[in-house]
Design a protein that fits this description.
The chain has about 210 residues and is α+β, with helices and mostly antiparallel strands. It is built from five helices and seven strands; from the N terminus they run H-E-E-E-E-H-E-E-H-E-H-H. It is elongated.
């Protein structure tokens, strides 16, 4: 992923906070023995430098991860199309504006540890439930009793040990503050499916760089 200097994360805390703010669904990418990419959409929980997730046992990605445990988890969200006329400075004709996309993306690269031990798998699932359901409401996952222990045979767990992170926040930071603010306001007014979230990220970045 190309990351221009103006699109890079302000610091490590920025991408970690972005993931913690509900961006916990991505695509796990691995390469199978035939050198073909396998892409699996998945919910995940990030704990320190470990990604926790699980998938059904018939999933084709196991063949890829058993062949080569190196993988990438890619997360993209808070995106919107920005029309060309929105992106011109005051002294430029609107028809000369270049359209673009604004988005945030974090790519976590690392090595996958496959989890088949029932106790470790149960603990992994419990951590995921606690992440996604902090209010509770689901029985504890254990390996030997309770409502879920028989289902453990149908899944495998994955712990991705993160070795590198590429983070990109593409919100026009190379443009003037006035133009960035104008684009954010236009997004809020347009109010498409992700426009407000995109505007919020753009304004956050703008304020972060100007403070």
């Amino acid at each position: 992923m190309l990351v221009h200097p103006w699109d890079s994360a302000l610091d490590e805390q920025e991408w970690r906070q972005w993931l913690a703010d509900g961006h916990d669904f991505g695509q796990l990418v691995a390469v199978d023995p035939d050198r073909r990419p396998v892409v699996q959409p998945v919910h995940f929980a990030l704990h320190d430098d470990r990604v926790l997730l699980h998938l059904a046992r018939p999933n084709p990605i196991w063949r890829a991860l058993e062949h080569d445990p190196h993988c990438v988890l890619s997360i993209v969200d808070d995106y919107a199309y920005i029309p060309g006329p929105w992106r011109v400075e005051a002294d430029t004709p609107p028809t000369s504006g270049v359209p673009t996309s604004h988005y945030a993306s974090v790519q976590l690269s690392g090595t996958a540890e496959l989890v088949d031990d029932p106790d470790v798998k149960a603990a992994l699932l419990q951590r995921q439930i606690e992440h996604f359901q902090p209010a509770g409401g689901t029985a504890e996952v254990t390996a030997h009793d309770g409502p879920f222990h028989r289902m453990l045979k149908g899944i495998r767990g994955v712990i991705v040990h993160v070795e590198s992170v590429t983070a990109k926040f593409k919100y026009g930071d190379n443009k003037s503050a006035a133009l960035q603010d104008s684009v954010a306001r236009r997004l809020i007014k347009r109010d498409g499916p992700r426009d407000r979230a995109t505007a919020a990220q753009q304004l956050r970045r703008l304020h972060g760089r100007t403070q």
